[in-house]
């Protein structure tokens, strides 16, 4: 079945540094990748939608200069948390539809737990 | 009030019990998803529904579009079913997924 590989699975960084999270589609072409954030015991919240070859679409309240998204190829999308602060500590997870958005099952990466000290 | 509500929030069961998790939503939808989130955080898609009923192994998902309600059933529950089960709907207005807060299930041997 379709697989989305996400790395790293966890990362601890110091305040002010940047962290890059990668999501790769291993056996299909992901023209679209969704990036979510999940705080403890809360729902997944969509941060942004990345599309291969074009600019990402950010949800209201998500700073595009802080959460840089790049989707340079059909198999790789990256999220970079720039100048990380403790309040950015969260669980970040990506998801890609295999087929069209409207009738496709969801395929998720395993997530990245970010801790900013 | 959240647009997607799940109940119960927490559920414990003995191995072998029949389990039901409920999801109610208040928006128009094009599809409803049931997801399983493991303790490590990884998420697996269980079902995608737009009508009726689907079955996969010991899992059954049903949806009633008129009542805006879906249920996930687990027959003959097993400790490995312990996870958080999340209901998510795709809004016809925004085309975006709206997630419930999840139901934490623990199945004891």
Compute the number of strand runs of chain A: 11
Low-confidence stretches of chain A: none
Shape of chain B, please?
Answer: globular
Strand content of chain B: over 45%
Please state the structural category of chain A.
Answer: mainly beta
How would you sum up this structure, described in words?
The complex is a heterodimer of chains A (117) and B (109). Chain A has 117 residues and is mainly β. Chain A is 0% helix and 51% strand. In chain A, strands 2, 4, 5, 6, 9, 10 and 11 form a seven-stranded mixed sheet that branches. In chain A, strands 1-3-8-7 form a four-stranded antiparallel sheet, with no helix packed on it. In chain A, strand 5 (45-51) and strand 6 form a beta hairpin. Chain A is globular, with a radius of gyration of 13 Å. Chain A starts with a strand and ends with a strand. Chain B is mainly beta. Chain B is built from no helices and eleven strands. In chain B, the strands form two sheets. In chain B, strands 2, 4, 5, 9, 10 and 11 form a six-stranded mixed sheet that branches. Chain B has a five-stranded antiparallel sheet with strand order 1-3-8-7-6, with no helix packed on it. In chain B, strand 7 (59-64) and strand 8 form a beta hairpin. Chain A binds chain B through residues 9, 34, 38, 41-46, 91, 93, 95, 101-111, 113, and chain B through 4, 30-31, 33, 35, 40-45, 48, 86, 88, 90, 95-97, 99-102.
Based on the model shown, name its key terms.
heterodimer; A: 117 residues; mainly beta; seven-stranded mixed β-sheet; globular; B: 109 residues; 11 strands
Question: What does the secondary structure layout of this molecule look like, with pairings?
Answer:
The complex is a heterodimer of chains A (117) and B (109).
Chain A: E1 4-7, E2 10-13, E3 19-25, E4 32-38, E5 45-51, E6 57-58, E7 67-73, E8 76-81, E9 90-97, E10 106-108, E11 112-116
Parallel strand pairs in A: 2-11
Antiparallel strand pairs in A: 1-3, 3-8, 4-5, 4-9, 5-6, 7-8, 9-10, 9-11
Chain B: E1 4-7, E2 10-14, E3 19-25, E4 29-37, E5 43-49, E6 52-56, E7 59-64, E8 69-74, E9 83-91, E10 97-99, E11 103-108
Parallel strand pairs in B: 2-11
Antiparallel strand pairs in B: 1-3, 3-8, 4-5, 4-9, 6-7, 7-8, 9-10, 9-11
């Amino acid at each position: 079945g379709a697989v989305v590989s996400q790395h790293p699975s966890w990362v601890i960084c110091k305040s002010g540094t940047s962290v890059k999270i990668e999501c790769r589609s291993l056996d299909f072409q992901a023209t679209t990748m969704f990036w979510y954030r999940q705080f403890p015991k809360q729902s997944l919240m969509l941060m942004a939608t990345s599309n291969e070859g074009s600019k990402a679409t950010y949800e209201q309240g998500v700073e595009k200069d802080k959460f840089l998204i790049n989707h340079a190829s059909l198999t790789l999308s990256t999220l970079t948390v720039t100048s990380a602060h403790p309040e950015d500590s969260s669980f970040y997870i990506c998801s890609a539809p295999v087929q069209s958005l409207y009738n496709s099952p969801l395929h998720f990466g395993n997530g990245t737990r970010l801790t900013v000290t | 009030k959240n647009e997607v509500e799940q109940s119960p929030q927490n559920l414990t069961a003995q191995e072998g019990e029949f389990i039901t998790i409920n999801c109610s939503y208040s928006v128009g939808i094009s599809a409803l998803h049931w997801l399983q989130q493991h303790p490590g955080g990884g998420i697996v898609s269980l079902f995608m529904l737009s009508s009726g009923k689907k079955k996969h192994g010991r899992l059954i998902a049903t949806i009633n579009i008129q009542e805006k309600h879906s249920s996930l059933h687990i027959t003959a529950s097993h400790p490995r079913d312990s996870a958080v089960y999340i209901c998510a709907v795709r809004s016809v207005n925004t085309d975006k997924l709206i997630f419930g807060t999840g139901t934490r299930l623990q199945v004891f041997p």
